[in-house]
Amino acid sequence: MSIEKIVKLLLVTCILTTFLGITLACNDNSPLSIEINTPEDGAALNTNLVKVKGIISNPKATVLINGQEAQIKDDGSFYTYLELEEGENIIKAVARLGSKSTEASVDVIFTPSLFVILSLPDNINDPFTGVPITVEGYVFPHEAAVTVKGNPVSVDEAGFFNTQINLHQGNNIIQAVATLDDQMDTDQWTILVENGIIGFPPGQGMGRYTEIDFIHSVQIGVDQLGVLNINAEIRKDIWNPGYISFYIFRVEAVYKENEIALPEGMTISIEPAEFKIYPNTVYSITLTIRTSSKTPPGEYYFLTTAKIEGSLTTKGWTKVTVTADGGFQLHVP
Predict the structure, then answer these.
(1) Structure pTM?
(2) What is the pLDDT of residues 187-230, one digit of tens each?
(3) Among 168, 164, 165, 166, which residue's Cα sits nearest to residue 193?
(4) 276 phi and psi, to 5 degrees?
(5) Of 78, 86, 140, 141, which is closest to residue 108 (Cα–Cα)?
(6) Where do the domains of the chain lie, and which CATH numbers do they carry?
(7) Residue 132: φ, ψ to 5°
(8) Beta-strand pair 217-221/313-323
């Protein structure tokens, strides 16, 4: 059989082979197809950061999602993170391979999570005189309706409200309830009047502060890929939309903060490293650790910082143990 006939046969059957030292490539004439699996078309979302996932018929193609290039695996699955605007969003995936192109799109709606907070009254530790105290608070989005102790209160254009509350001896539960469309959020304080003093029972305020679930420790083998999720729960200490930025780097040990070089053959990253956040919202981002055959087994320490715009920086240390015999283990405190 001639070389020409062999080439034609291989092109028809779409097989990759090497003959007489010449690599013959497949000429794939099948149509290019793409599908977005997540989020679903018509989805109503309360988070502005979405991980768009889908499948492309040929993993050699390039996929752009609203102009951002997606990561594509060998099986054709792809993903990228996308930030949504408030209201309706069209997510469009465009795939190209040579002269071929195709696209798919879904429509989703992003509505920020409702958020209401009461400020601690200024009268704490003052003598109790029977005079009503002023209770203040804030709500986002600002067009929400708010009640305090069941009574409607006026909300100004900036989202602030205040009202007068009568106190009595013992515990006084002050609760604010915000409603907007089908959403509801609440916040409350307990004011204690005892021995003629306006007090504040201990233990309140727990659960109000933003929490990042930093990875505590990871075990990974050489020449291995580890993909982990980090959850960031933005709570009632963040009042308005802003930005959060993550940075991860190697340090000498736990509680050390000076950056040192990565071990040979290892990469570590957080995706996305920066994005817009809204109060009362949980975000999930990706920590990726990759080792190679050149990565020396041993224990390595990393510091992750999460800087919230207008707020303090949160920190967490991670121990990464690289083993020669493989195996992947994860511990989140």
Answers:
(1) 0.81
(2) 998 999 999 999 888 766 556 788 999 999 999 999 999 999 99
(3) 168
(4) -80, 140
(5) 86
(6) 34-110 (2.60.40.10), 115-199 (2.60.40.10), 211-331 (2.60.40.2310)
(7) -55, 145
(8) parallel
